[in-house]
């Protein structure tokens, strides 16, 4: 029997991978976004009144997720994707169940940390799985579909929290029970749907000329912590800082400072997530078409997103505020992220590409640790969350301008060096 003949099932496995990974992000982000609209209900259970203390729930989660990024990637390389993915989701599910059964804020902190550790196992396993199985000609669209699972999950989490708890009057723990059910469902899907074998790699013998070209290209790539890469990490940090501040505090801001009530809170917050879906697809295609303009596209998106955050807190009417939220979702993190990842991949040494992307994601997720707590501290001190928005805007603009100036400088320098080293014919 010829084992090289591919069956329709084998050929369509990448489609299954896309659907599974998208559903995985939906599940993770329903959990991530479901608690933030319910901070006032959780406060009644745990008996605290501090915004700082509530913001730390998100910070503990993102601390675990951030610091699991690089170790999880190493574990995936050593033990396989399925071997890391399934224990991670088991830990995630146990943590969500503990949160549903406790009335202690300290226990919620600890469980949130472990939920973050469990979810932190997902990124490396998911994108290793997708890179191995999705055909190269389908990768951009397929990756956008996978990434948009986070937007769908964020929107659903906020809407369901507002609908089930604020509108229907169910206890806030009902959202955690729903999350546990979704996590268990995903565990079954991963157990039976994910193959724990690497895709076969056909090694081709390289000519001496190809080896020389690769060596020259490798030398021309930037170091892991060169100025050019550091500003990439910085702009990703700035992008994520604004995004995670919005994810954590937008529902409370709308309720306490703009007068939104009940289901309107969840639907209004979900606009950011749902608007991000077409934004990610549109601007990724524009970036692919104008590959030499990626630096400028990233700068313009950052300025546009920061402007919409400014309009969110200064909008004179609810209609203008909702328009600002939609445009922020369209121009924000999910639009910038695939372009920035593509730009980093172009600049990085291919021999350490995985490490480079891991470091980049570490910087991005580290913003999720600081943004919720800093905004909570400022809110307690000032009585408003407006200053938290302003700080996010300043961080986004400074990081974007530095990224643009330094990246443009080194790009021109690289072109100049290539011209000088080229033989005159």
Description:
The structure is a single chain. With 425 residues, the protein is mostly helical. The chain has two domains: 11-196, MFS general substrate transporter like domains (Growth Hormone, Chain: A), CATH 1.20.1250; 225-407, Growth Hormone, Chain: A (Up-down Bundle), CATH 1.20.1250. The protein is built from 17 helices and no strands. It has helices at 8-11, 13-34, 39-46, 51-79, 81-100, 105-120, 122-133, 139-167, 173-193, 208-220, 227-257, 263-289, 294-314, 318-331, 333-347, 353-382, 386-421. α16 (353-382) runs antiparallel to α17 (386-421). It is globular and about 55 Å long. The model is unreliable at 1-8, 198-204 and 216-220 (pLDDT under 50).
